Structure formats: structure tokens, C-alpha cells
């Protein structure tokens, strides 16, 4: 039997995760008081239950009862129950944005600020995060990408590395992405913008790709970056990092950075990492950009 605990930061995607698991055939229960987990497990594991896949959503909505979660999980493990803990994570800025957009109240907010509630929640959840087998950072994930990560994590556990890599192209004139971990400037590469026949295309078009990648500096940049990441990524995974944002910028974020972002993403995918490729500024300045 597959027994999954879904927990994590409020606003990080727990409800979406439970909906995906329900679609995947799991019997899902959300916001079960931790004190009832043991009794619920007894029912689920009884010979006549008919249940094969179970997912429980547990978080700080349980209030003061949340602390019981740790003793309940320890008791289940002592009874020989194997379980996977899925922890949903996200950056503070994105969590605040999501709460403001949905106008929902954070479960720990009384008279204080959302920022304070998020910090309090993060401290409360740190022990369960340390026990989690699967940590997914949804800061830069679309809903369909979250579904992909969950599917991969639950069905390919041996190769899942708890690290989601986002490769992001951008234009320096629109600002450096604030969530970047690594930023690379490719404005040293010859600019397709100054070729009138290429100006209206983007780095998604073959004519621009061929132009950008014909230069030795372009291939050398990718090779050296690939070599550096081959060293960095395993060490990030070892350290416990679960989200890596690699940003590649040119002037407008339309030509050079788009091409090189796609090339790098394909290389990283070939190493079986979870890679998501985004082009932040590709549609800005339709007639001006590079």
C-alpha cells in the first residue's frame, strides 16, 4: 500500500497536489487532525478496506494539534508502516503574492502581517520538512509542471533528486530576475538584432539559433557552463537545495539568451534532471529586442 502525507507551506500547492493524487487513484483526505492519523491508518490497513493508495493532507490549519503530527508519524513507523512525505515549498515573496491574489487568509494570521505568519509557519514545519522524502519547490512552477514533478517523484523515486532546475532567459533592460541563483550575461555574443533579416525573429526560430550558435564563443560558453554545472548541481543536491534558478540574459531577452537557454535546458535534461525552461521577456518589445 502507498501511504502519502502531503504537507508544506500554506499557498505552496497542497490542494493542487491532493487533486492530482486523487486523479491518480489515491484515496485523499485533507486537513485530518494529526491525532486521528493513527486510527485512520488502522482502518485503511484493515484487510477489508480495499484501499491501495492513500494520501493525507496535513498542515498548520490543525492549530495546536499540529505538533501531535510528529509523534503520530513516529508511532506509524514503529508499527512498520512505510510512508512518503511530500513537502510543498515556495519563496516568501511568491506565497505573499498568492495570498493577496486569492484574498485568502493565512491560517496563522490573526492581527499580524502575512509575512510574520509565513516565517512562523516555516519554523513550525522545519522538523517535518527534514523528514520529507520528496520536496518540491513551486516558486516557479506552473500547475502542469507541478503535476509532472509529482508524477516523476512518485513513479520514479530512484532517479528523483529533489532538485527542480529552472533555466530562464531575460533581458537586462527589463531587470535581472529577483529569484535567480546563478546569472550569466551573454551580451558578448554577436547580436542578431543588428541583422535586419533576423530582427523580427526570436531565439525560438531556427534562423536565429543557427546565427547565435555559429560562433565559437557561443559553443565555448555552453561547454564551460555545462562543465561548471556538472560540478555544482550534485553538490547543491547534497546540501539539500531543492530549487535552482539559472538565468541567462542578453539586452532584450529575445534572441541570444533565448537560444542559449534552450540549448542549456536540453543538456541538463539529458542528465535526467527535472528542468523547466522559461523565456520571461521574449514577447516584450515586439519590434525592439534581442
From TrEMBL:
Claim: Metal-binding is one of the keywords in the record = no
Q: Which part of the chain is the RapZ C-terminal domain?
A: 164-283
Where does the chain bind GTP?
A: 59-62
Arranged from A to Z, the UniProt key words for this protein are: ATP-binding, GTP-binding, Nucleotide-binding
- Per UniProt, ATP binds at 8-15
Q: Name one Pfam family in it.
A: RapZ-like_N
Q: Which residues form the RapZ-like N-terminal domain?
A: 1-156
Keyword Transport found: no
Q: Which domain of life is it from?
A: Bacteria
List GO molecular-function terms, semicolon-separated.
ATP binding; GTP binding
The UniProt entry, under NCBIfam families, shows: PRK05416.1
Return the protein name. GTPase possibly involved in regulator sRNA degradation
Amino acid at each position: 500500500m502507498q501511504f502519502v502525507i502531503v504537507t508544506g507551506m500554506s499557498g505552496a500547492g497542497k490542494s493542487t497536489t491532493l487533486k492530482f493524487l486523487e486523479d491518480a487513484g489515491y484515496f485523499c483526505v485533507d486537513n485530518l487532525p494529526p491525532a486521528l492519523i493513527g486510527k485512520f491508518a488502522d482502518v485503511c490497513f484493515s484487510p477489508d478496506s480495499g484501499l491501495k493508495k492513500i494520501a493525507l493532507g496535513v498542515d498548520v490549519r490543525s492549530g495546536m494539534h499540529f505538533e501531535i503530527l510528529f509523534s503520530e508519524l513516529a508511532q506509524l513507523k514503529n508499527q512498520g508502516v512505510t510512508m512518503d512525505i511530500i513537502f510543498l515549498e515556495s519563496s516568501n515573496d511568491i506565497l505573499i503574492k498568492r495570498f493577496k491574489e486569492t484574498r485568502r487568509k493565512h491560517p496563522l494570521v490573526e492581527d499580524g502581517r502575512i509575512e510574520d505568519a509565513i516565517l512562523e509557519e516555516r519554523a513550525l514545519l522545519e522538523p517535518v520538512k527534514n523528514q520529507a522524502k520528496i520536496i518540491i519547490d513551486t516558486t516557479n512552477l506552473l500547475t502542469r509542471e507541478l503535476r509532472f514533478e509529482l508524477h516523476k517523484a512518485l513513479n520514479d523515486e530512484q532517479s528523483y533528486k529533489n532538485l527542480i532546475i529552472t533555466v530562464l532567459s531575460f533581458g537586462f533592460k527589463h531587470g535581472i530576475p529577483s529569484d535567480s541563483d546563478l546569472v550569466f550575461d551573454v551580451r558578448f555574443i554577436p547580436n542578431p538584432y543588428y541583422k535586419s533579416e533576423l530582427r523580427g525573429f526570436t531565439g525560438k526560430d531556427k534562423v536565429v539559433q543557427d546565427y547565435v550558435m555559429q560562433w565559437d564563443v557561443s559553443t565555448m560558453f555552453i561547454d564551460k557552463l555545462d562543465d561548471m554545472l556538472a560540478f555544482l548541481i550534485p553538490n547543491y543536491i547534497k546540501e539539500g537545495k531543492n530549487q535552482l534558478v539559472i538565468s541567462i540574459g542578453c539586452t532584450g531577452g529575445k534572441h541570444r539568451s533565448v537560444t542559449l537557454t534552450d540549448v542549456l535546458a536540453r543538456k541538463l535534461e539529458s542528465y535526467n534532471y527535472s528542468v523547466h525552461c522559461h523565456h520571461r521577456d521574449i514577447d516584450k518589445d515586439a519590434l525592439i529586442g534581442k
